[in-house]
Amino acid sequence: MIQLVRGFRDILPGEIERWQEIEKTAVSLFENFGFKEIRIPILERTELFARSIGEDTDIVEKEMYTFADRKGELITLRPEATASIVRSYIQHKTYAKDPVQKLYTIGPMFRRERPQKGRYRQFYQIDVEVLGDESAYVDALLIFMLVTLFERLLVKDVSTHINSLGCSKCRPDFKAALSEFINSKSAALCSDCNRRKDRNPLRVLDCKVPKCREAMKDAPSILDSLDSDCQKHFDDLKQSLEDLNIPYIIDKSLVRGLDYYTRTIFEIQSRYEGAQNAICGGGRYDNLMKTLGGPDLPATGFAIGFDRLAEISGLQSTDLVKRPDVFIAALGEKSISKALKWSCRMALEGIYAELDMSGRSLKALMKRADRMGAGYVLIIGEQELMDGSAVLRNMKTKEQESIGIEGIVENLKKVLLK
Ligand code: ATP
Ligand code: MG
């Protein structure tokens, strides 16, 4: 038996209905805010991720699926979507038409992490980006959209955590203060942190190792080093969240696992899940466009972990599974061939008629109809064909009526759409 690759999984019918509902809800919400879909490739040149996400990050150091293609070029299965969206915006000079682009994409991402509940090697993200706009109001709007989405998906106990990472003007001061603090704690930090602390001290704040978290508890906060522009940006964000009635928590230790963030960063957490409680991460990345060789334009966005969202959404898959409007229990060859035409016509008329062609006994068919949750069963055998009328059984009330075979689709529609 050939099994799945570790950390990869199938999403089966029964579970997929929830995924579909989440996707529908998200897309309709995003489109009401003027977002357009973009589809980007699953493979990109390794360099794109190395340069945007950052060489010293967990993702680039140890999580990427990178390999040489047949000509030796290094390519990577995308670990996230932002880099590709920015690459596309630069490559097609989309900004020349209209610098402000509001985009979303939904699809699989790949990271070679240790698999556990809520953490997979192929996982899915719902990714939203606003390119070309530096306003804090856009950040607030994104958070509003997120909170609304989680509400609609019946996700309980979510909290919004925000922080600012400042900009390239105010961050150096902060980095210096942070480095000093880190050096005083280096004995208590893990080997990754010790290796990265000089090149990228912010990474240490993001380390998940408990002893590092403990050691970094009283680290200096970037919020004390913001320059006046960044301070105003952060104040505007807080004020807009208040105006939009969105409760938030300022979390000065929040940084994100990717290097490109500036100013606003945020995370939506759910109390529900324990360890893997971050269901969405996002923030502003005003310098990424330039870093990737594009124009000096700001951007902001977020990525929702679809798998985690599906696990904690209160939507019930069983309520979402499509059940047959009518189950056709056709007995005998002749009835099956007649019923085949009816079921095809019904599908065209928007009626889901499940036709069982197995030729099994009526008892077996009734059992299956019941299991599938059919609203009605249409029984058609040799006798019914001769009489010109089939038996229609209401599975809820158990009432039966006879229904004319002549014009049967119309006759059924009258009953089913009643
Ligand atoms: P974490 O801290 O949980 O590793 P992250 O900071 O690496 O998350 P991001 O890169 O910000 O995550 O991705 C955004 C969201 O994607 C996360 O909040 C999470 O819900 C989801 N996510 C990230 N990695 C995985 C994974 N391996 N499996 C499932 N979901 C994931
Ligand atoms: Mg991670």
Characterization of this structure:
Strand 15 and strand 16 form a beta hairpin. The strands form three sheets. Strands 1-5-6-11-10-9-7-8 form an eight-stranded mixed sheet. Helix 6 packs parallel to helix 11. The model has no long low-confidence stretch (mean pLDDT 94). It is built from 18 helices and 16 strands. It is an alpha+beta fold and 418 residues long. Bound molecules: adenosine-5'-triphosphate (ATP) and magnesium ion.
Task: Specify the number of helices.
Answer: 18
Oligomeric grouping of the chains = single chain
Question: What distance lies between the first and last C-alpha atoms, to the nearest angstrom?
Answer: 49 Å
Largest sheet: 8 strands, mixed
Q: What's the pLDDT, averaged over the residues? A: 94
Count of beta strands = 16
- Supply Rg: 28 Å
Gross geometry? elongated
Which range best describes the helical content: under 10%, 10-25%, 25-40%, 40-55%, 55-70% or over 70%?
A: 25-40%
The parts where pLDDT drops under 50 for at least 5 residues are none
How does the helix and strand content classify structurally? alpha+beta
As laid out across the biggest beta sheet, the strand order is 1-5-6-11-10-9-7-8
Layout of secondary structure:
Blueprint lengths: L15 H17 L3 E2 L5 E3 H8 L4 H6 L1 E4 L5 E4 L4 H10 L2 H4 L3 E10 L11 E10 L4 H17 L5 E7 L6 H15 L5 H6 L5 H4 L4 H6 L12 H16 L5 E2 L11 E9 L7 E7 L3 H4 L7 E7 H7 L4 H4 L5 E5 L2 H16 L4 E4 L5 H11 L3 E5 L1 H6 L1 E6 L5 E5 L3 H9 L2
Parallel strand pairs: 1-5, 7-8, 12-13, 12-14
Antiparallel strand pairs: 2-4, 3-4, 5-6, 6-11, 7-9, 9-10, 10-11, 14-15, 15-16
This protein binds adenosine-5'-triphosphate and magnesium ion.
